[in-house]
Predict the structure.
Amino acid sequence: MTRRIAICAPSTPFTREDAARVMALAHAEFPGLDLVFHDQCFASEGHFAGPDEVRLEAFVACANDPAFDAVWFVRGGYGANRIAMDALPLLEAPAYDKQYLGYSDGGTLLASLFRAGIGQSVHAPMPVDLRREGGEVAVRRTLSWLQGDPAGLEPSLADGQPAVAFNLMTLAMLCGTPLLPDLRNHVVMVEEVAEYHYAVDRLLFHVTNCLALAGIAGLRLGRVSQVPENDRPFGWAVEEMVHHWCAKTGIAYLGAADIGHDVDNKIVPFGLA
Amino acid sequence: MTRRIAICAPSTPFTREDAARVMALAHAEFPGLDLVFHDQCFASEGHFAGPDEVRLEAFVACANDPAFDAVWFVRGGYGANRIAMDALPLLEAPAYDKQYLGYSDGGTLLASLFRAGIGQSVHAPMPVDLRREGGEVAVRRTLSWLQGDPAGLEPSLADGQPAVAFNLMTLAMLCGTPLLPDLRNHVVMVEEVAEYHYAVDRLLFHVTNCLALAGIAGLRLGRVSQVPENDRPFGWAVEEMVHHWCAKTGIAYLGAADIGHDVDNKIVPFGLA
């Protein structure tokens, strides 16, 4: 049975050329999948893939369409937070029986849906990852997962604990807001890209202090990549920062997570895998 | 009667040359003030003005010394959050009868002290502002305030409402943590520097959603300066962003605040001026 995947852009726009490349890869290697790029993926207004209303309407249309088995976010960037709260009350029965896949800024929508108990949120590579060198392997990982192959799952999920995975900045911006899910007993995995070391330390301060009383099972550190060079070295490695803030806030540090803004980024279904 | 002002560095280091210039200005124009730079202002380890323990010890020593009337943070940068929670239980009676002055990253300590009801927190220009072109006017503003002159107060404080003033990123990192004061009925002024427009929008999303139920009197927007150019224009002016998020979260937008990372940055005593 063919599985139909709707692709939309809650944050920033994609190009038709790159969409064609993703379609070609899926067509050649995943005959059991039918990818449908919503035209809104190619809309553009200022920073965003179209105005808030357009992005909201496209996401809701994909989610509410019973013909689709999953909604895949084409890329991150910034902007999902501007439609997440408005989307929830518009979602109907078909939206509850779907997977939602993406990461980075898309984590805002994954979190909101997870909090509301709507469908299955999944941290997973996105179509935009095809732009990375060797990016086919990342895109294939999500497509294989959508065909039912669990090989791309983040390895520590084998411990059987419920988990979530977030870009650190995205999670930080959710902490303290009504969009943050109840993370009690969950392993929280974080990764970051293109932030100064001092900013990573600041985000870890924020997130660990916000989650100190949330009863999480612990924190896992994904990759922190493309750190810009500051006017002087920070003096601490990222893992030392995590140790520091976990110790300060009484959160268990559980070790590494195999996630990041790169082609090795693994799959983390929110909740129980 | 001479007022004695202790200067320390909870975040990043200063230089002896610039300290000498601040001393010279104070000596020439403010004979009623006696500024004392703690040696820790010139300590350096990685990003910080010395390790956490050294910055903590210097701040606590200044705060607990009955010979001082005020503690002035030499500059921001990043790091006050690493000592704020540890400092509070170490503060003794003399610390309760003091002003604490600074802004930017120093807002973390101002918030923590304000929350704990220790002394008087004051958003005010710092010694480092002397490095700006025409920076003497900013440094003089704080020195005049310390001599009892209210001329440098942020003008909207004339409305008689309690207020606080924060760097937007600094406030965002406090929201949802145990360091955030009760801001019920307070006007919250925010300013930002050197953040992309999309990041400012994201911070406003976070702060307004976090404060939506905090019962604040409203938000005032200070200057958002040195915005880096992104690969594409954001499409919204900062004031439009504030309007948007205030409307979404039911927070009153009260207009402009005369604060920012610049020489015109005015004085905002936390609570009632």
User: Anything to note?
Assistant: Chain B touches chain A through 36 residues (CB under 8 Å). The helical segments of chain B are 16-29, 52-64, 81-87, 107-116, 136-146, 168-174, 197-211, 238-249. The radius of gyration of chain B is 18 Å.
